[in-house]
């Protein structure tokens, strides 16, 4: 992992005297955007107040814009996600923030909006073991790619290059603020039907969230439109000084979309790009039809400042403050298993001499797990138990002494399970709400007496037979389906050694590891459960 100081240097390069916030991150309200032509140069004649240059870019012109310096996309603390779904022709790359519920909820909403727009029924999908979906999170530079590239690239686009792609970039980190821009592209090889961006500003200190559109006042859209039309009029040789008519709603919408595309210029100011369709009666009178390509407008810093909202000014004032850092990863994170392909990996019989190593791997993999612990073992290793909970893993009772619950009286079965739960609660301060019967042995009398959900499994790796790492990976990664519960034991060195390969393999297939309770949306059903 790169050091945070390296990331912050990248951020500082992107911040500027005018708009460390407003100009680094593309402003957005979820409408179409088109990137500027990097080869364009301002014409010498431009002298209109507040606008230094404008040019119309014909469709298909120009190479990919060189991306501005960006923060490293794998900054420690981000929860990186990826969804591929061939049934609805969609692929999505995104990030979440540990513990920042309002941000994560908005990300889920944007993903669900993209899925809903397909008009197709959605169920999470997984793929073969070599699918390579373990590479997750934002894709550097993807905000600047042509929309056709976003759709066509296997890194970001749906299978076949037609459908919907969602990608993102981390565009700013300063003070306690993190800004992430999400882009949604829909279309085919022949035509792009949607290209939308939303920039989310999360304040880690307050838990607040703002979107990029909130950073502009009511003068921004009409002001930009009027300046763009005036420059096109001058470019065509029209010398009239008559005021331009106010833009109708459809034209104002084009300028509003352009506010999403702010790009900083080293000398101050920025470029904004208006999508095709810019038109006015004054231009029509000069024989200029609605533009067929994007129109790039270069606006000076003073004008941009006059368009910014109080929120933007506040954020700009904080932009020089050092970034406070991201929260540490924690497995106790809300997960929408109707959106991502969830699988629960569980470990029995611990804690043991190998559990600390397992926790190290889970932390490195950023993978939550459920550990069904023996009460007696937990008493002997209290720090390991507390660490597991502190890092967001789930604990369940595996009884005190590992008896076959079908061979003891119901009241003894209840005592075994609940006493172990009490030990774990005393060590962690948390209630224990599930149990796993040793050997999976359970009858109705014991279940009724215990009164807690009994978590069994749908995938048994038979790791107690020590079959080797390759077999353990095949029996878990190769066999798992969406909603499965996988059984391991953290009392075997071989099992713990295989953990990294197991979680990496699951992610490559498109799975998101979760705890048992996360698998069931926070409420494990009563009775016996073995899968979602």
Name the assembly state.
Answer: single chain
Structural class: alpha/beta
Could you tell me how far the N terminus lies from the C terminus, measured between alpha carbons in angstroms?
34 Å
Total strand count, please? 18
Work out the strand percent.
15-25%
Largest sheet: 6 strands, mixed
CATH class of the domain at 341-529 reads Alpha Beta
CATH architecture designation of the domain at 341-529: Alpha-Beta Barrel
Radius of gyration: 28 Å
Spell out the CATH superfamily of the domain at 341-529: Glycoside hydrolase/deacetylase
Mean pLDDT over all positions: 85
Helix content: 25-40%
CATH fold-level topology of the domain at 341-529: TIM Barrel
3D architecture notes:
This protein is of the alpha/beta class. Among the domains are: 4-15 and 66-215, no CATH class; 341-529, TIM Barrel (Alpha-Beta Barrel). Helix content is 30%, strand content 20%. The protein has 16 helices and 18 strands. It has helices spanning 4-14, 101-116, 147-152, 220-235, 249-258, 281-285, 301-307, 310-318, 355-365, 375-380, 382-390, 410-428, 444-450, 469-476, 493-508, 516-519, and strands at 51-57, 79-85, 90-96, 163-174, 177-187, 192-203, 209-211, 263-264, 270-274, 294-299, 341-350, 370-373, 394-397, 454-455, 459-460, 485-489, 511-514, 528-529. The strands form 4 sheets. It has a 6-stranded mixed sheet, with helices on both faces. Strands 11, 12, 13, 15, 16 and 17 form a 6-stranded parallel sheet that branches. Strands 1-10-9-8 form a 4-stranded antiparallel sheet. α14 (469-476) links the parallel β15 (459-460) and β16 (485-489). α4 crosses α5 (249-258), α9 (355-365) packs parallel to α15 (493-508) and α14 (469-476) packs across α15 (493-508). The longest helix is centred in the C-terminal third of the chain and has 19 residues, at 410-428. The two termini are 34 Å apart. The model is unreliable at 1-75 (pLDDT under 50).
